[in-house]
Amino acid sequence: MNKSVYIADNMTYYNSAVHFADDLSFDNDDQQGATMPIFAEINGEPDTNCKGLKEESLPILPLRNMVLFPGIALPVSIGRSKSLKLIKDANTNKSFIGVVCQIDSSVNEPGLKDLYHIGTVAEVLKVLEMPDQTTTVILQGKKRFNLNEIVDTKPYLKGNISLCEEINPSDMDKEFDALIDSIKDITLRIFKNMTDGPKEMLFALKNIDHPVYLVNFLCSSLPGTPEDKQKLLSLDNTKDRAFALYKKLNKDIQILEIKADIQNKTREDINQQQREHYLQAQMKTIQDELGGSQEEEFAELRARASKKRWSPEVAAVFEKEMKKLERIHPQMPDFSIQYNYIQTMLNLPWGEYSKDNLNLKNAQKILDKQHYGLEKVKDRILEHLAVLKLRGDFKSPIICLYGPPGVGKTSLGKSIAEALKRKYVRVSFGGLHDEAEIRGHRRTYIGAMPGRIINAIIKAGTSNPVFVLDEIDKIGNDFKGDPASALLEVLDPEQNSTFHDNYLDIDYDLSNVMFIATANNINNIQQPLLDRMEMIDISGYIIEEKVEIARRHLLPKQLEAHGIKKSDFDIPKKTMEDIVTYYSRESGVRQLDKKIAQIMRRLARKIASKEEYPKILLPEHLQEFLGQKEYNPDVYEGNNYAGVVTGLAWTAVGGEILFVESSLTKSKAEKLTLTGNLGDVMKESAVLALQYIKAHSSLLGINEEVFDKWSVHIHVPEGAIPKDGPSAGITMVTSLASAFTQRKVRANLAMTGEITLRGRVLPVGGIKEKILAAKRAGIKDIVLCIDNKRDIEEINETYLKGLTFHYVRDISEVLDFALLNEKVDKPLEIA
Prior knowledge:
With 831 residues, the protein is of the alpha/beta class. Helix 9 runs antiparallel to helix 10, helix 11 runs antiparallel to helix 12 and helix 18 packs across helix 20 (590-608).
């Protein structure tokens, strides 16, 4: 047998073995660790000769956390008395022993169930008495066996075994040769990444020629749990064992490379920090030499703070935040966050107020100059100034101006600010759906900033500006919160003296801010928010008012915007009235302003081209400058047809008149048809109207049998336009009554009001807009609910000239006034 065993007398190789697998341990309970196995073969065939082996009664040596492979020499420290007796007998008799690994290393007296069934026949090469009074034996594996049963337990374990046949690949197996080369390569990579890998292992790896022995040597030598090594030992086919070993090595190298990569990154981070620290130290030295440093900037911040008129509580918070800033390194991300917060504190106008101009006549002059009409709003502002002048200190009112687009709600805020000599800021809430836009973000969030309220105060530079909350009815809400609810604190005079912004995290006094909210539709505003504001309705303008606004404000503005001198061009009242009537249909003047701008552009082109142009724009010139007429005004159509009644409607652009038409057709059964793109509420009004006519047919002189022989069709023209609301109730009753009786409706009459099933007339809204529409259409008489009388009394008398109002409580009063005793021309014979 060609043996070349590395066992010197002084055990130099054994003592230099390195512990590199924490999950291995010696047989002795007190020794936890591992030594690298001694390789016994350098070249030639591994010695698997087991001549003289007694398979029926082989001494069994159980090992803790160790697995012996064929051909491998392994040092084992002996601790148990039975194991020591077994080793001494085997060494004396030169006999073989069976080495198996325990399943559970904590068991002191293992039986068959405590041992793996696959083990290795071993030969005792040498027994050594160590300096620490322990015994170490060097075993060399021979051949694998299967432990069938334990036949004796005294003086040590003996078992019945059967040898396992090894299936080795042939010398011509190229795949196996490639696999061995791959195993060598990946093993070298493992030891390259291991900082404490033994040099002897590399020596053995390079000098072992026999592939089978190399596989067993690596299975025994490399780190791994006893369970993993036992699985390798259990494989009969050496090629399968080599594949399993390669799979395990591949997993190990991935883990080692990841660890190495982490260590390299950590080392780079440490090096980078050291470099930054060194550069910062140099920078500080340079700044000190140049006379500028961070300390000077901190001193400047404190100097600004000393001039602030804030409370002691705010001053304490500032000092606390400054100390926190001084402790942060300037290159840290938290430094800029803290610095921005302190800048926000310093930029706020704590206790800084602009002086109000309390001259009431001057304020009245400015308001009248910039806005025509709007007397109610002007009176409210002047009342506020009067109280402020008498008392000297007065909480600003919170006003909500609501009305159709283009009537001057937003621009009115500027005029109020100018009249009071206050700063003016505006925040648009259209489409706002994040609560943080109002209250700000908490500083824990990246990119946190104050809310729009605090930002606007910073922009104003004073704590008492005129603050316009534009389009407050268009606030949305979603999973980010409800901004409208956040505004409750802002717009409550009892709470806004301690407004809390999440970013600022300090209470700020908003009680001196004059908030002016604007809205188009107050139905979209939450009720609690409405309760906190003083609501002022800004209705649409009549034609005369639009003409005055255009001549006083819009025309001079557009002349200046287009570079045309006032002396070179003018639009007289009659022409302006035609522009309002035929080229714009709105409650405000925004569309009118665009039409004037269109005229100016056409005029500028003529002047620049040196073409002739009219110095005074006459009505006959409008087609050239604005094109064909875009609208035809609503005009009363007369009372020649039965069942046609004029109603009044409110729209987002002002009031309009509408016609309710009822017709009857013979049929075998009663049927009610509704057309004109009517909403559910309006359809219900039509059903109520018909039921009222049926219930009171005797009072109207209608035969009850008529309803079974005639079908009713109610139509409201302009079917492309959706229509809804209850205000057409009395109009529909009058239309049906006229159709069934074939009586004329009073000429130049319009009406609006809701009805109940018992015939009571209820009040409706939008009265001013409806009256303006009626006046434009040439209406003379208007029927309203008695409860709407208060609305009429609040309207300027200028709007009411030429109109007569008839107030009613019951639908019978409406019919008595509206229906004439005169039949229409060519009446329908209804029987």
